[in-house]
Amino acid sequence: MEKILNEILSTLKDHSKRFDGIDEKFDSIDQKFVSIDKKFDLIDQRFDSIDKRFDSIDHEISDVKSRLGNVENRLENVEERIDKVDIRLGNVESRLGNVENSVERLSEQIENNATEFRSHFKHIETKLDQHEETFHVISDTLMGTKIDIEHLSKKSGVHETEINQLKKRIHS
């Protein structure tokens, strides 16, 4: 039995050496797993930093979207104001058309009045010319009458003087 036990022990020692080799292999595998875990930890850290970068990029993108939303709102407001200006400009154009029509009517009316006034002035000038001729005739007549009156007045003065002289002679 001793022999069997020795054989078993020697077999176990052989097996123990094999197990030691297996243990060493497991230890090296464990070390590889540890180094792999470290690498995974580094990769996790890199992913964490990448996640942080993506979060900051997401935040910046949301800020940009917010700003773009504000810009879009402003553009919509500008478009509304431009539409209102277009409407007002259309109203102004319509009113300007009405003003142009009124100006045309007034222009025609002014031309008609000018023609009528010219005709009326010609008529008045004709009448004035007739009256001027009449005044010249009357003036000439009055002048002639005045001359006649002066002549007669002189004659009557001469006659009165002669009469006075005759009276004085008679009385003397």
UniProtKB/TrEMBL annotation:
This is t-SNARE coiled-coil homology domain-containing protein. SUPFAM superfamilies: Tropomyosin (SSF57997). Keywords: Coiled coil. Residues 61-116 form a coiled coil. It comes from Cytobacillus firmus DS1. It comes from the Bacteria.
